[in-house]
Amino acid sequence: MNTTPTKAVKGLPLAVITLLVTLLPAQGFSKPVAQQEPANSVNQNQQTLLFANSDFETGGLTNWIATGEAFSYQPTLGDNPTARRRNQPSQHQGKYWIGTFERYQGLEGQKPGNIQGDRPTGILTSIPFTIQGETISFLAGGGKWRDTVCIALMIDGQEVIRTTGNNNESMVQHTWAVKPYLGKTARIVISDSASGGWGHINADNFRYTRIIR
Predict the structure, then answer these.
(1) pTM of the shown model
(2) 3-class secondary structure for 1-52?
(3) Of 15, 101, 104, 193, which residue is 20 to 30 A from 118 by alpha carbon distance?
(4) Residues with Cβ < 8 Å from 76, sequence gap 6 or more?
(5) CATH code of the domain containing 141
(6) CA–CA separation, 37 and 22 (whole Å)
(7) Residue 75, preceding bond cis, omega within 30 degrees?
(8) What is residue 3's DSSP assignment?
């Protein structure tokens, strides 16, 4: 399992993230619980988007803010690792997903499986949204670099939990327990701040999987 709670932002990349997503004064937090599950194990009919395009199915980055170059060709379209015979299918949901190694969006002049590689770096930050469910599930893959290649949940401007990939292109489902943060302002931050081997992140389909009625 590569999902761990955090109490404070550490290192240069996280300092940058904190500046990008500062919303309200930091407050104390309960320690969240997280778990990893097999991909696509949650009934899609019971899921609700965190906000419009939290699953990237518009084919663009509406409601996300990108800095740096890693997200210039995102979201990517289709199972690009399989298109280049990687033998690690992306296991994405729908048509589009975030894969910062990829350079294929279905545009003219591009071919399935085209890559930009690990060199570009950047950060993708969601719009603010209010936590309205008990759990958030999403797909994650790519590099296992906790400090530089990761997916984080920010609450009122402070990171409270983080997930990495597992050095594999195939995404698996992760679940964050967010009941302690009901009603609070949140953002999702997807970071690719590494340029070496496995210096890329895969992510898709951010949804509530248990809604407060």
Answers:
(1) 0.79
(2) CCEEECCCCCHHHHHHHHHHHCCCCCCCCCCCCEEEECCCCCCHHHCEECCC
(3) 15
(4) 96, 97, 98, 99, 102, 103, 104, 105
(5) 2.60.120.260
(6) 31
(7) yes
(8) E
Which residue type sits at 119?
R
113 φ, ψ (degrees, to nearest 5): 95, -10
SS3 label, residue 203: strand
User: Is 10's pLDDT higher than 50?
Assistant: no
- The CA distance from 21 to 16, in Å, is 9
Neighbours of 77 (CB within 10 A): 19
Length of the chain as a residue count: 213
DSSP 129-176: EE--EEEEEEEEEE--BTTTEEEEEEETTEEEEEE---SEEEEEEEEE
Between 37 and 118, where is the model more confident? 118
35, pLDDT greater than 60: no
- Token code pair at residue 72: 């210039």
Decide if 151 contacts 161 (C-beta within 8 A): no
Alpha-carbon gap, residue 179 to 100, rounded angstroms: 30
Task: Give the β-pairing of 133-142 and 168-177.
Answer: antiparallel
Question: Residue 83, SS3?
Answer: helix
The first and second tokens of residue 98, run together, are 């975030």
**What is the mean pLDDT of the segment spanning 64-72?**
97
In angstroms, the first-to-last Cα distance of the chain is 30
Number of domains in the chain: 1
